[in-house]
Backbone:
């Protein structure tokens, strides 16, 4: 033992206070640990307030806490144990406790549950600890009971009721407990009520802690409950024991990600080679293992055991094996102690109806289900579905995550998918029909034009489900889509995987209008990639051309111009070989916008004219109107506002005739752009505000953000930087919430507003953020704008300013842009600070929020 621990010995001299000696010893070990009380909470599984009481001698710590502190600093716990016993039993006494202790061994390498353990220690009485299989209920109960030993000197008792297997009869459990407290066998009555009464009497005369493990039901455990508060009882159950009164409940969740990684690391430490845990890739693999285990303690411990017994394996190898969904449960098998065995025990306790629906939940496209999905899967009424879902929740096979929504743990979901059930294929089809039907109804409420277009493009019609949510209005419909978007993507993926590609295509077509408004570009790209694969599986050129079109659009919204062009050009090839495909005009329109992003103006102009012609030939006036507004933006870039206005007015009349509200809002933005080009700022501001109002009514957040940014620039150029800042903030809110392709341009425009208001530091910061995004996306024009803005903010360093301006001019020259298109005037004279004041370029306010030729994020209207 180290010098700080030399005072702890078996013999405590007479007259010395062992409690004070113990407190001093604990303080010396805290000093040796070089940790604060807060930092000791996790390794000792005790709150800092409790540790403070122990280290100051105000209360005696449970022995496991003192022992854990010894291990933490490398001390031999045996001398401290004798000192602890002396402190517990009084000065000069080292008498060992004689009360019976039936508790199982405390869990090795216990991690987490500090808050829960504190609850059990601080609030005595009867506790029911419930949770899903493998979540660590027994480990926590046993741990807490060990920590309570010194508070309950009359005995520590344990009984396993086997409620999830073959239930141990309650009267037999009472007999075992009575024998444990010393009641002779001949005194134990046969009558169940008399036996329970005797147990309560014996317990009332004692201060004991009792662990009742794996109770199957309230009836199963009720006769064991104490009649007084002199003892504490910790009951564990896989079910919520709702029928028990006057007890406290503690429902355990899985570990936090950090705790799960700590558990994996602690259990494998010192059992593997020293280099295994130090590598950054290995640490990342451990985090992935914990995630793939769903942070379930049982699964994490099984993985740790695998690594311990396979010293040549790296964590990365195990992570690779767990990543294969079909093998995950195999990797987590440990016989009767594995994840499958644990879940099977719980499933076998269900009635036939609940077991059937539990298996069918594996057919759902995601881990979250609601009563409507469950009803569709099992083809039952909503009331029956809800009853079963609540029963599964009580069994901790589901967790509630909303009024009528429930979540399957990842491993539970894997397990349900492995169960054999005769009508799984039919259930999958009913679920797909349900989601497709609901999407169609939801989109019809907030964009009937697109809903009609999607329906007209596909003759595929799902079977209507018996029960669907009631969408009272557009807000309710959009809220449902927000909640269900991950499940919709999962449904599209499942449909393709299970031979229903028409469902995938139909889901992508119907969800298009939602993605146009909500952003969610990552999910949109994934949905459209599935649609391309499904269209090719079906062998439909029409669907393939459309899917490539929206894939290009979504890539462009995500800022990946190269991927967007690749998809659009592939789609154009499909259209070239199949001239009648309906998406031909939209592909050309999207190509015009995307090549305009790259300042390929000749190709953009040619594609715009071809798109207008294709839409006109196909009898699609709305599409032609959209193409005209896009071409008008290009003409503004070329300094031709009169022609741009003529095209926009024509498009505006078309949208009025066809009733396309998105087109009306877009035309208002374009008219504002034209006014800005003519330096007519007051009417421009009015046009933009009309567009904001229309976009807000439509729930089109992206278009609303574009209009906010456009009006901000117009206000700034009109001298009102304060009002401009408010609209920049509105546009930024959409970027932060939903993501937005125009983010880089928004930042640069906001930087120039800061600059106009004399705020050079935030101007430089915002411009640098915009520059970083523009460089990542290869957008030369926005890079040049950002560089010039930074230069204007850095006039105190003229050498740096000149270098930035030179770099900007090189970029502009490379794409064929001239300086008069930029929105910073008189940039040549870097020696004159007064020359460095942002004006604006002619095309400020295009509907994508970029205000320039680099990005044009207007709706492409596939």
Residues:
């Amino acid at each position: 033992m180290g010098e700080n621990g030399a005072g702890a010995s078996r013999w405590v001299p007479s007259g010395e206070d062992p409690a004070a000696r113990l407190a001093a010893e604990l303080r010396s070990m805290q000093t040796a640990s070089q940790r604060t009380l807060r930092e000791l909470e996790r390794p000792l599984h005790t709150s800092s307030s409790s540790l403070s009481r122990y280290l100051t001698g105000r209360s005696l710590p449970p022995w496991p806490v003192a022992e854990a502190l010894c291990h933490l600093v490398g001390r031999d716990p045996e001398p401290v144990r004798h000192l602890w016993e002396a402190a517990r039993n009084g000065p000069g006494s080292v008498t060992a406790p004689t009360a019976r202790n039936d508790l199982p061994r405390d869990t090795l390498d216990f991690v987490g549950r500090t808050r829960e353990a504190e609850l059990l220690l601080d609030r005595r009485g009867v506790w029911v600890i419930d949770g899903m299989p493998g979540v660590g209920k027994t480990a926590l109960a046993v741990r807490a009971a060990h920590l309570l030993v010194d508070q309950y000197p009359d005995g520590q008792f344990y009984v396993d009721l086997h409620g999830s297997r073959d239930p141990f009869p309650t009267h037999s459990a009472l007999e075992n407990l009575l024998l444990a407290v010393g009641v002779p066998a001949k005194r134990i009555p046969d009558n169940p009520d008399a036996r329970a009464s005797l147990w309560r009497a014996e317990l009332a005369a004692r201060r004991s802690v009792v662990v009742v493990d794996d109770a199957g039901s309230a009836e199963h455990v009720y006769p064991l409950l104490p009649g007084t508060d002199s003892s504490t009882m910790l009951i564990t159950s896989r079910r919520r024991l709702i029928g028990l009164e006057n007890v406290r409940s503690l429902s355990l969740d899985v570990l936090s990600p950090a705790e799960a990684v700590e558990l994996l690391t602690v259990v494998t430490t010192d059992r593997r080679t020293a280099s295994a845990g130090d590598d950054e890739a290995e640490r990342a693999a451990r985090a992935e293992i914990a995630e793939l285990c769903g942070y379930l303690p049982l699964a994490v411990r099984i993985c740790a055991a695998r690594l311990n017994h396979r010293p040549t394996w790296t964590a990365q190898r195990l992570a690779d094996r767990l990543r294969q969904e079909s093998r995950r449960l195999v990797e987590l098998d440990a016989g009767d102690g594995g994840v499958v065995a644990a879940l099977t025990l719980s499933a076998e306790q269900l009635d036939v109806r609940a077991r059937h629906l539990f298996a069918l939940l594996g057919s759902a496209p995601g881990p979250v289900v609601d009563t409507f999905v469950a009803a569709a899967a099992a083809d039952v009424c909503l009331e029956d579905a809800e009853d079963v879902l609540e029963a599964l929740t009580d069994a901790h096979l589901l967790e509630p995550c909303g009024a009528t929504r429930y979540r399957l743990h990842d491993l539970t979901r894997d397990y349900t998918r492995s169960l054999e059930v005769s009508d799984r294929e039919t259930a999958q089809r009913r679920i797909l029909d349900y989601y497709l039907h609901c999407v169609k109804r939801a989109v019809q409420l907030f964009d009937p034009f697109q809903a009609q277009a999607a329906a007209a493009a596909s003759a595929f019609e799902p079977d209507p489900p018996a029960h669907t949510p009631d969408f009272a209005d557009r807000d309710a419909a959009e809220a449902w889509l927000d909640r269900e978007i991950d499940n919709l993507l999962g449904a599209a993926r499942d449909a393709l995987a299970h031979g229903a590609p028409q469902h995938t295509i139909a889901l992508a077509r119907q969800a298009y209008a939602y993605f146009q408004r909500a952003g969610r570009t990552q999910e949109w790209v994934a949905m459209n990639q599935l649609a391309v694969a499904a269209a090719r599986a079906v062998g439909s050129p029409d669907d393939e051309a459309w899917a490539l079109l929206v894939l290009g659009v979504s890539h462009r919204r995500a800022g990946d111009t190269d991927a967007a062009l690749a998809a659009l050009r592939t789609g154009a090839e499909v259209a070239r070989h199949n001239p009648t495909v309906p998406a031909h005009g939209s592909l050309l329109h999207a190509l015009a916008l995307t090549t305009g992003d790259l300042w390929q103006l000749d190709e953009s102009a040619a594609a715009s004219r071809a798109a207008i012609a294709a839409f006109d030939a196909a009898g699609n006036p709305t599409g032609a109107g959209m193409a005209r507004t896009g071409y008008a933006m290009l003409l503004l870039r070329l300094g031709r506002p009169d022609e741009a206005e003529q095209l926009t007015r024509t498009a505006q009349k078309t949208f009025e005739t066809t009733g396309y509200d998105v087109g009306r809002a877009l035309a208002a933005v374009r008219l504002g752009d034209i006014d800005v080009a003519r330096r007519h700022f007051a009417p421009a501001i009015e046009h933009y505000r009309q567009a904001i109002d229309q976009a807000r009514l439509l729930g089109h957040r992206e278009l609303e953000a574009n209009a906010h940014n456009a009006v901000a620039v117009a206000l700034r150029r009109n001298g009102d930087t304060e009002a401009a800042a408010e609209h920049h903030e509105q546009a930024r809110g959409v970027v932060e919430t939903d993501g937005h392709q125009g983010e880089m341009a928004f930042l640069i425009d906001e930087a120039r507003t800061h600059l106009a208001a004399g705020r050079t530091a935030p101007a430089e910061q915002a411009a640098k953020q915009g520059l970083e995004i523009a460089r990542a996306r290869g957008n030369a024009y926005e890079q040049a704008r950002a560089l010039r803005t930074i230069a204007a903010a850095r006039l105190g360093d003229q050498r740096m300013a000149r270098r930035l301006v030179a770099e900007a001019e090189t970029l502009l020259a490379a794409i064929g842009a001239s300086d008069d298109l930029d929105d910073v005037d008189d940039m040549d004279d870097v020696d004159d600070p007064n020359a460095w004041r942002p004006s604006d370029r002619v095309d400020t306010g295009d509907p994508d929020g970029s205000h320039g030729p680099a990005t044009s994020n207007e709706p492409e209207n596939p």
